[in-house]
Amino acid sequence: EVQLVESGGGLMQPGSSLKLSCATSGFIFGIYDMMSWFRQAPGKERDFVSAISADGVATYYADSLKGRFTISRDNAKNTVSLQMNSLKPEDTARYYCAVFTGTLIRSPMAYEYWGQGTQVTVSS
Q: How many CB atoms lie within 10 A of CB 111?
């Protein structure tokens, strides 16, 4: 059974940094799996944040987040992380990791397996 468990969310001040982690199990991590982060604010659609190839070489970001967010993975520990810097109130959302199983990496429809998410709230 594929399991994804996100952690690291919290209540943050604007301008601060936070690192989210996603622990995975139930599949062979680091061979064929592109991993991604999405986020969803209340009342809004689930939006693509970032993706990373199985070998960690290729990374992709939402245009609006380039330069502030960094995705990484540790194939020895079966984890994928998201470093978020210079947090803004508009970054407030529930953040999800997911395993890419489709064709369009920026579309939530391309992902079959999701974690439960971790809440990030940015507020002064």
A: 23
pLDDT mean across residues, the chain: 95
Confidence of residue 75 (pLDDT cuts 50, 70, 90): very high
Taken as a whole, the chain contains a residue count of 124
SS3 108: helix
- Return d(Cα 70, Cα 95) in angstroms, integer: 14
Q: How far, in Å, CA of 45 to CA of 75, rounded?
A: 30
CA 71 – CA 79 distance, rounded (Å)? 11
List CB contacts of 96: < 8 A, sequence separation 6 or more: 6, 37, 38, 39, 40, 46, 114, 115, 116, 117
Spatial distance between the Cα atoms of 69 and 113, rounded to a whole number of angstroms: 22
How do residues 38-49 score in pLDDT, each as one tens digit? Answer: 999 999 999 999
Tell me how far apart the terminal alpha carbons of the chain are, to the nearest angstrom: 40
